Amino acid sequence: MKSHFHLLQLDLYFADYKFALLSLVTAFVVTLVSIPPIISLIRKYNLYDKPNARKEHILPIPTMGGIAITGGMITALILWFPFSNQAGQISFFFSVLILMALGIMDDLKDLSAKYKFMVQIALAALMALSGIRISSFEGLLGIYELPLSAQYSFTLLAIVGITNAFNLIDGIDGLAGGLGFMSLVTLGIFLTITGDVNTALIAFALAGAVLAFLYFNLNPAKIFMGDTGSLVLGFVIAVLCIRLMQVNASLASPVMDNTPVFVLGIVLIPVFDTVRVFSIRIWNGKSPFSADKTHIHHLLTNQGFSHGFAAKAICFIHGFILMKSIWLKNIRVEFSLLILLLFMILAIAGLKNLGLLFPNWSSRYFKRAKAE
């Protein structure tokens, strides 16, 4: 059965998504039933995420919801994913487990950024060695096939950068989960369209787990995903983006002509925001890792908007970027890149001045935030 979605300019064959739906539902159910016991254990052993200069919440909140997210994803994949001895699969699932362990340690003991970077770089190198690499820019800036050294360099930069971008944007209730869910569903759909149905199951399984987590994480949050969840979320999305580039480039008739820009659109908000914040800190003579409140969600909460409104507004922008990336998937790659970057600059400017443009909105949502 085929359906054409005019808004997205896509033809979807629903028979191709049978196991995708099973993976999503399984991960959703497993995560949904496992979070309440995790919350109880965290409260019992006083393992809260405590407020500090980086964080928006004012009361200690249970954390490490990423355990349930990763557990839900892995359970679904054990049931529905066709495992093999391929190096890429072994490296991927090993990396996910290591990152979850790293996230647990960081949530418990607040590890140094240097140590976390070392582990992430090692895992990114492992993925590159197993064959998950950015091998071509597909004509972006006139660059096609990359030398082997450049393939490894850009792969490490992409995986480590996207992993930390999702980690850093996890600052208010529902934001990282909302962005991640939409990105994963988009990746799952296009991996299926390009014929990589098996890898798409990973995207849909994690999407189902994140959706269940959002039930407990929307404002006011009952639990945070913590680094345990955000590191895994960012890593999986990074690897799936690279895989989509590889699969699309290998097709005799590629589904899209500008895959590098398309996958950039999938991660644009967290990546653009991280680059912007780091650049501002360096320009002001500070460490890029210093604590402040300049991230994209702070642009709204600093004006008095509630966490719930900020997360919804940013997720709405992310949804529009995803649709725009789909609409631009077959135009000249430089034009699509320019359009996305200009839109993101305008979006940042708009969010930064939203309180001035709509003062009544800010007042109303500030009162609601105080009430919560």
Spatial extent as radius of gyration: 20 Å
Number of domains: 1
CA-based shape: globular
* Oligomer class: single chain
Question: Residue share in helices?
Answer: 55-70%
Largest sheet: 2 strands, antiparallel
The computed structural class is mainly alpha
> Strands across the major sheet, in which order?
1-2
> How many beta-strand elements?
4
Count of separate DSSP helical elements: 15
User: From N to C, what is the helix and strand string?
Assistant: EEHEEHHHHHHHHHHHHHH
In whole angstroms, the N-to-C terminal distance is 46 Å
Mean model confidence by pLDDT = 89
Low-confidence stretches: none
Report strand %.
Answer: under 5%
Describe the protein's architecture and organization.
Helix 3 runs antiparallel to helix 4, helix 4 packs across helix 5 (148-169) and helix 9 packs antiparallel against helix 12. This protein has one domain (2-371). It has 15 helices and 4 strands. The strands form 2 sheets. It has a two-stranded antiparallel ribbon. With 372 residues, the chain is mainly α. The chain starts with a strand and ends with a helix. A hairpin with a 4-residue loop joins strand 1 and strand 2 (10-13). The longest helix is centred in the first third of the chain and has 27 residues, at 18-44.
